[in-house]
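Extended Data, panel c. Modelled sequence:
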Amino acid sequence: MWPRDEIVIRKHLTPFFGDKFLSEIGSEDIEKYRAARVKLVSKSTVNREMDCLTTLLNKAVEWGKLRENPALKVKDFKVDNRRLVYLERGECARLLEACRQDFRPIAETFILTGLRKSELFSLRWADIDLRAGVIQVLKTKNAKPRHIPLNGRLREVFKRVPRNIGSDLVFCRRDGKPWVDIRESLA
């Protein structure tokens, strides 16, 4: 168990549920806990606390102390975890300087498009239309395809990327296999 979980149990779960037997805790009680906590902390914090409670109750089921886990009937709060992070010009330059020469096109494409790592490494030549000036991103996090316009600099990047006969991926290893981790490419 994580130290953070012990704090959650001691400071929040025990004071709220402490006078009840495990068999007396129902999904309605758990909903009341969530409603009370969300007035004090963020939804994501409540979701983490619920994860801790769910784990505890799963153990109780595993040990035969409960027939079923009432927390499984309670849904997490929907949380928007999106954050926009931008690199400043100096940071972009330092990133490119730190890259191996053969990896620079990947870093430049990342900087110029904002593609996620998974999107970048699954990008295929068929997804790039140099004449129309657009990249079609099909495999996205939310499964909704999107289009990214190509500027002149990005067109030049793609012209410099050597095509691998063994793969239709834009960015792949010399053996044609897809990249998995980019850390090894930094000098």
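Residues 172 and 185 are 12 Å apart (CA to CA). This feature is highlighted in the accompanying rendering.
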